[in-house]
């Protein structure tokens, strides 16, 4: 029996230390709360961190520190802490609300807006100032605001084909394809040699299923500019729609012969490889896309989907994690698919957490609630569907790129 006494002693000490550690952590949280009231935010972060070091499962510590990070504008850090709180307690409503608030705030600093607003105040009759603000909104995917600015610019300079072009791209992104078609045609009437306008007119026609008209306009694009590689990308999409995979690949190859750095051509070629079940080729192509553009979320997502489809679930999880944590925290499908894998592994708590995050982001993007499942025991039913589709395989509107 003597041999077990040291172990028994250590166990007793450990059990005694647990309440002490918990009490110590709670003290740090209380001190942090006081610092927040006093607006001593750096000191508050330090105390919350000490609480977390004392007890890594304290939801209040992660929520509190995340809230301070949110006040400080450290949005990525805030999102990480709120996610951690949700991982610990998937039913923590406040953490979900704060995470959604963080997602909404992720974007450009206020001074970038102010710089453009001041330019308009200084020269209210300068259409380019409105175009600059519109382009900035466009980059933030605030398409309605972008369109408003382009319209203001066009009122000041109604015969400017380049302003028309930006407005047309805004319409395209909003799915207003007839409006886009009309404005691109006006731009071409003013400047028949405007290759970008010809190309995007073709895209707007293709979106409406006007394939013959789109092909004619793509050919006009190449007449104006024989080196317009993106035109071959759309030719490839037309062949892909017809399930003529080898012909689609040939078109993408033409695009890359003209421009070896045409990432959209390489990305679309990877989709064809995946549809042909040439999975290793598809993975290699998507990896090359990411070498050139590490933030290409769709390429990263399709890597995850390919691993998912081929039952390499740990690798799929690794890529969904990369998207959610590093590449694009607002990429809702990554959360959904990761939740599917958690469910398959029997971790329904994390699956539920990911689906709630997916729901919040979807509502933020669309203003509509997805088919939310509120009970954890219903997670299995929610994920009975088969492996996910490739990004770009189902939604035609995501297939084409636009040249700005």
From TrEMBL:
Gene3D superfamilies in the cross-refs: Tetratricopeptide repeat domain
Keywords, alphabetical: Repeat, TPR repeat
InterPro entries: TPR-like_helical_dom_sf, TPR_rpt, Ycf3
PANTHER family: TETRATRICOPEPTIDE REPEAT PROTEIN 6 (PTHR44858), UDP-N-ACETYLGLUCOSAMINE--PEPTIDE N-ACETYLGLUCOSAMINYLTRANSFERASE SPINDLY-RELATED (PTHR44858:SF1)
TPR repeats: 59-92, 127-160, 161-194, 195-228, 229-262
Origin species: Candidatus Brocadia sinica JPN1
Protein name as catalogued: TPR repeat-containing protein
Keyword hit for Cytoplasm: no
């Amino acid at each position: 029996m003597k041999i077990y006494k040291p172990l028994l002693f250590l166990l007793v000490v450990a059990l005694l230390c647990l309440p002490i550690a918990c009490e110590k952590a709670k003290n740090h949280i209380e001190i942090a709360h006081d610092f927040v009231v006093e607006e001593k935010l750096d000191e508050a972060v330090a105390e919350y961190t000490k609480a977390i070091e004392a007890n890594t499962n304290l939801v209040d510590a992660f929520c509190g520190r995340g809230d301070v990070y949110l006040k400080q504008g450290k949005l990525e850090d805030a999102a990480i802490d709120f996610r951690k709180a949700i991982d610990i307690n998937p039913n923590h409503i406040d953490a979900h609300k704060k995470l959604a608030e963080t997602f909404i705030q992720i974007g450009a600093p206020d001074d970038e807006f102010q710089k453009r607003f001041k330019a308009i105040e200084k020269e209210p009759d300068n259409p380019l100032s409105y175009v600059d603000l519109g382009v900035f909104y466009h980059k933030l995917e605030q398409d309605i605001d972008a369109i408003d600015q382009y319209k203001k610019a066009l009122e000041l300079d109604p015969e400017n084909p380049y302003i028309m072009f930006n407005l047309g791209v805004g319409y395209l992104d909003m799915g207003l394809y007839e409006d886009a078609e009309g404005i691109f045609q006006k731009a071409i009437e003013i400047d028949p040699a405007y290759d970008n306008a010809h190309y995007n007119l073709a895209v707007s026609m293709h979106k409406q299923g006007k394939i013959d008209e789109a092909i004619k306009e793509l050919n006009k694009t190449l007449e104006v500019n024989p080196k317009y590689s993106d035109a071959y990308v759309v030719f490839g999409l037309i062949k892909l729609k017809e399930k003529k995979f080898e012909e689609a690949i040939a078109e993408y190859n033409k695009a890359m012969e003209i421009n070896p750095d045409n990432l959209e051509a390489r990305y679309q070629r990877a989709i064809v490889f995946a549809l042909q079940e040439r999975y290793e080729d598809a993975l290699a192509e998507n990896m090359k896309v990411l070498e050139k553009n590490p933030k290409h979320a769709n390429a990263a997502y399709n890597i995850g989907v390919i691993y998912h489809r081929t039952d390499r679930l740990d690798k799929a999880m690794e890529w969904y994690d990369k998207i959610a944590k590093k590449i694009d925290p607002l990429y809702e499908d990554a959360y959904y698919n990761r939740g599917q894998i958690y469910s398959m592994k029997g971790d329904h708590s994390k699956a539920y957490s990911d689906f709630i995050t997916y729901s919040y982001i979807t509502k933020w993007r669309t203003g509509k609630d997805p088919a939310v499942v509120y009970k954890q025991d219903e997670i299995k039913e929610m994920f009975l569907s088969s492996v996910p589709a490739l990004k770009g395989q189902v939604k035609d509107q995501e297939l084409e790129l636009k040249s700005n």
